[in-house]
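Hi C.,

You asked whether I'd gotten around to modeling the 222-residue construct. I have! Everything is below, sequence then structure, no commentary in between.
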Amino acid sequence: MRWLVGFLLLVQVCGAQTVCIDPGHPSEVGRGTRGRKTTEIRVVWEVANLLAEALRKDGVKVVLTKSAEEQYVANKDRARIANESGADLFIRLHCDAASGSGLTVYHPDRVGTAKDGKRGPSAQVLASSTRAALAFQASLAKSLKGVFRLNPLKTDRQTAVGGKQGALTGSIYSEVPVVLIELCVLTNRKDEAFITSKAGRAKLVAALARGVLAAISAPLAF
């Protein structure tokens, strides 16, 4: 039995090579937020492609949920793409509009119900998403220290949509581990300046790549 557990752990680590990156918006909830100089759609599209490039260099297979910056994709279809890819992690990229600043990681912690009655995610996805989020957060804490503000880990229920549904729509439909990243508060001038600068964006993408690798290597619970 001990050899079987070891073998399964090895398969998990070595086989965790597919990541689905979801550049948020436009979707059924709108076009997202905007700063003084740029938009959420533009920022997450650029970061998604840079992150995809970085992960591919590390041997990770990457699938994006859309092929063009302005492509409309409903949130349940974004999750479907992640599910069909067999992703080891579904990472959803967004920018916030709030009074604070910094990057925030969200994960589902309970079953929610979408407007069409769909319930999810499963207990297995909830557990794997939590493990992925904890590993992601720990990695970001090291990478972003002294570089960019990292807020405490939060759950889907601490968002406007998740508070109403119990979980975000993308999480409800996800059949793979899922986390949502609010990359910055785009309405905060300092955050916008950081994420639109070449140096700031490069540091953030590098931190995200390390976080993804940590998340997809998080051990299984037996």
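If it helps when you're writing up: Confidence is low (pLDDT under 50) at residues 1-14.

Thanks,
B.
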